[in-house]
Amino acid sequence: MRTVLALLGATALIGFAAPAYGGPPPEPNGDDAGFLAALRQAGFNFASPDAAVGAGRAVCSLLNGGESGLELVSDVKAHNPGMDMEQASNFALISAKFYCPHQLSRA
User: Pfam family of this protein, just one (predicted)?
Assistant: First the structure.
């Protein structure tokens, strides 16, 4: 089951890495290595670290563009069919922690 989820999640992350959403560009700073380590520690697997980082930065682009938390989690899940809502929420939270921590205080 975990292998199937990893394969689906990795494939979906590649699709989410370059979303066609407007809004401010992602934060220029961020701890990519820390982000990837936090994803691994949370049980996320990915085939491409660059795609995972792109997806994490895309989360912040959506938040910076005014998307609500629930909309964001729904978008993450829609772009990653192998994730459930809890996993999508965890991915969004980890992304915000490393790429746009100022968004965490909005909630």
Answer: DUF732
